[in-house]
Target: UPF0434 protein C8J24_1329
Amino acid sequence: MSGLDPWLLERLVCPVSRTPLRYDETAQELISDAARLAYPVRDGVPVMLVEEARPIDGVATA
Model:
């Protein structure tokens, strides 16, 4: 089972690009392919602060 509530995931968007996010359960991150940022999920809580996000490389993974 995912560590993130599917209801919540459907409603979250990237604060930079305003596009939907995808959840990487292994890395515990929410990925914004549009902004190329990964937002951490700590103890099941998404940290949606741009200053907490890390840049991701140009290759998107499923």
About this structure: The helical segments are 6-11. The longest helix spans residues 6-11.
